[in-house]
Each structure stands twice: as structure tokens, then as C-alpha cells.
Amino acid sequence: MDQTIQVRSITFEYESDKGRVLAVENVSFDVADGEFLCILGPSGCGKTTILNMLAGFLTPTRGEILIGGRPVAGRGQDRGVVFQDFAQLFPWRTARRNVEFGLEMRGVADAERRETALKFLRLVKLEKFAESYPHELSGGMQQRVAIARALAYNPAVLLMDEPFAALDAMTRDEMQKQLTEIWQATKKTVVYITHNVAEAVYLADQILVLAAHPGTVKARLRFDLQRPRDPLSAEFVAAQRELLGHLQH
């Protein structure tokens, strides 16, 4: 399955009480098959708007988005989405039944759904909590269930909107490590929204830096640091410093 992403000169405008607002202007980038892209920038720079256009929740005012060479025209099962909000899980469903949801919508048989859900719960190290409900799980565990659910129906691309921002620092660090392992195991193309410089350097092959008002591309950076990445290494600190330089100027 071709998992490349091509974003061609997308612009997004919307109506407000004060008239037309230009949220994103002339943004272009490519994400290779199996690559991990982080989109980084200040609040209000259009990061989530771009992700929503990739997901098909919003339609660009101008420009186009191609996934696997095919134009994005609305929502599709070739894209899995993980949000920041813990409430994205269905509270009345167990972890396993949450992961099964997309497969259920596809009409997959009960036995296959169960087997697939348990496979992805094992991948996120939660198979022992398969029959637990969301309120019985920590925030980090709920996010792992959401990742398993997004992966279970085998989308071409995984879209993630600051999924760890609401977690405490120690849990966030552990989740970043686990996400790297999951990404390496599944070889998915990932687009990940963040405002955290260290997180972007830890996760990404490529980083897109946005300027705000309206959101435009300020820089595109690549850091070929060896994985697993050591946040205390000189190379990691130098990469953070370079990235911060682009954000501050």
C-alpha cells in the first residue's frame, strides 16, 4: 500500500464575525512512504487545520492533497486519526471493543475482529487490560488504546494531533518511546502535530516549522539521528538548538 503524502499549495480560509480569515497559506510538503513527519509551530499557526485537511474533515480553499497518489476527497479509512482528548474513546466499550470499532463498521466477522483487536492491544502492551473500560485506565493507557484503534483497520497513514500533550512529563516520555517502537514495527507514514521541540527531535525524520498568522512554511528540517535517540546526547541538543533558532526568528 502506497503511503506517500503530497501536499500541494494548500490554503484554508474561513468566515468569522469579522469577515474572511486566512488560517493557512500556500503550504506544500511531501512525506515519503513510512516516514515520520512532525509539524511544529506556535499556537494559532494552523497545525491542526492542516491535520484536519489531511484527515478530510476540512477541504482546502485552494490546493490539493494526495495520499498514495489519490486526491483526498473527504474522510477515508486510508487514514487513522488520534486526538489529544482522552474522551475520544467510547466510555461504554471495553478497550478491546473500542479497538474493534473500525473493523465492526467494515463488517468484519466477530472472531477476526477480536483477534485483530488483541493483536494491536499486544502491540501497545495493553493485552492484560483488554476487558477494562476507559475510566479504569490511566491517560497514557487510554491514548495507547486510541493508537491501537487507529491502527487496527490498517490505514495507510496515521495522523496524530498532540496526542501526549495532556500527559505528565514522565508518562509523555514513555509514550514517545512506545510510539517510536510501534512506528518501527508497523512502518506507517505518520504526521504528528506538536508544539514541543524536544518531542519533535525525538520522533521525527522530517520537521515542518510553521509561522503563524497565517500559517506558512518557515523551514523544513531533517535530523538523521540514530534511533533510539538519546535526549542528553550532544547531537540531540544541537538539533534542538537549531530547531529553536528557526522558531525564534
Distance between the termini: 39 Å
Q: Total strand count, please? A: 10
Largest sheet: 6 strands, mixed
Quote the beta fraction.
25-35%
Shape: globular
Order of helices and strands: EEEHEEEHHHEHEHEEH
What percent of the residues sit in helical stretches (DSSP H or I)?
A: 25-40%
Tell me what you see in this structure.
- By secondary structure, the chain is α/β, with parallel strands linked by helices.
- Helix content is 35%, strand content 27%.
- The protein contains 7 helices and 10 strands.
- The chain has a 6-stranded mixed sheet with strand order 6-7-8-3-9-10, with helices on both faces.
- α5 (169-186) links the parallel β7 and β8 (189-194).
- α2 packs parallel to α4 (139-152).
- The longest helix has 18 residues, at 169-186.
- The protein is globular and about 50 Å long.
- It starts with a strand and ends with a helix.
